[in-house]
Amino acid sequence: MTKRSSRWQVLVLALLLAGCRTSLGTAPPPGGWANHAPTVVERVVDRGANQLLEVRQGQYVTWVRVPQVGARVGDYVLLGQGTAERNVEVAEIGERVPELVTIEHARAVDLATAQAASVGRIPEDAVGVAEAFAGLDALADREVVVHGIVTRVAGAIGWYWVHLRDASGDPALADLDLTVQTKDNPLEGQRVLYRGTLRKEVDLGFGYFYDALLEEAEYAQ
Predict the structure, then answer these.
(1) Considering the entire predicted model, what is its pTM?
(2) Beta strand ranges found along the chain (DSSP E)
């Protein structure tokens, strides 16, 4: 057995044992977190199974109703899309708030995660997961920037193995899964940009075969 093949076999065994990264809060929404800037909690009303949070995102301040995620004043939160109600009475604070947005998906995080997960501008040279697969023959063995939504993260042999799906949120693209080998450890539901070398038909052994793999990738934002 060669040194290289032995290393890959150890890697595959580690992948079999590795679990997903877990965090407190609800599961990420199918379309990824919707924050356009870090969102900080300024007031909290606990209601048992859910929380009302007054949050600030840049210059914009509003109230949101989210599942119980244990958020406290000063925490940062990731939020999915929601439905707004106008002129809502919040009895606990004796105020009528101009807007209350009910959001199914939320998670309390630290500032670094809130900054990394904020939706930014996608560069013109970046491709989505669907585009990467569609253009695989032409893009193979080239450095590319791929954008997508993180669906799973596993750690093994000094690397994180990040699974991406297309950032469009199109259900028809849900079966397109691009694996990224990286030192970065993103959060599930995070929209990311990775720059790396796109490889075609990578066989790691033990049944681990990838139609496409983005090797030694780094954040591109």
Answers:
(1) 0.69
(2) 39-47, 50-57, 60-67, 76-79, 82-90, 95-103, 106-109, 127-128, 142-156, 159-165, 178-182, 191-205, 208-219
